[in-house]
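Lecture 7 notes: from sequence to structure.

We start with a single chain of 304 residues. Read the sequence below before looking at the structure.
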Amino acid sequence: MKKILVTGGTTFVSKYTAAYFVKRGYEVVVLNRGSRKQIDGVIHLQGDRHNAAALLKDKKFDIILDITAYTGDDIKDFVPAIGGFEQYIMVSSSAVYSETEPQPFREESVLGQNRYWGFYGTNKIDAEKALLSQAKDAYIVRPPYLYGPMNNVYREAFVFDCALADRPFYLPKNGQMKMQFFMVEDLCRFFECLIHEKPQEHIFNVGNKESVSIKDWVKLCYACVGKEPELIEVHEAIEQRNYFSFYDYEYYLNIEKQERLMEDTMSLSDGLQAAYEWYCNHRDEVVRKPYLQFIDEHFVHGCT
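Now the structure, written as tokens:
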């Protein structure tokens, strides 16, 4: 039985990851501050990753799954504190690619500041560099938009709320902007591929092969509730993030390297259905944003 250390373990990706590997029979240790309920079956180490030496200096792990590294300091303070490990996998982000680079983005694309993601993307770049300087054989995973059960970010849940309330949905422009997603369970499956296959390549874009338009994504979310949306296009010069969950930014990742290890991914319709079923019983775990309030204040008579 392999021993895994998961950083975090209390919200969305890290929480799902901890639960996934517990179910798969791994010995799962989570490192977090202990401010939230822990997943059943984990071993909890209460502490901060920046001051973890006392907790970790005598401990060895087969795998480190670092879900919560956001800056270079997050890596520099943490990796030397660990007593030992065989594999290190860090979740980075597609935000490391500048929007000015040719698409689809490849792992070899030039990294740089992205005006939509700002310091989040450049901090992830710093974290990647720091990790590869301390653990050259580490794996770095760069996902697009993640979704699925345990998602506390108000994305698909926002659309579910609109459907449940029989509200029309306000589409940015004509709703044809494309988005690329990756189901959190597929992310965990890919972690397992890295663990078992130990590929020679160490940086991977991950995601669904096909992108989806805003319009089709909204229709899939409504279908999970058993409804069809009334769609209203917004062509006014209004910041999209005021009434919609995503930036006005279309990008696409090349995932050929992922497909060599893991060809199949969950269909978006099945993944959203799983997300909806979770949401029905965990609505209080989602951090809402005031999209509906903005819509009610600004789109009372609809937009065309």
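The chain has a mean pLDDT of 96. Keep this in mind for problem set 3.
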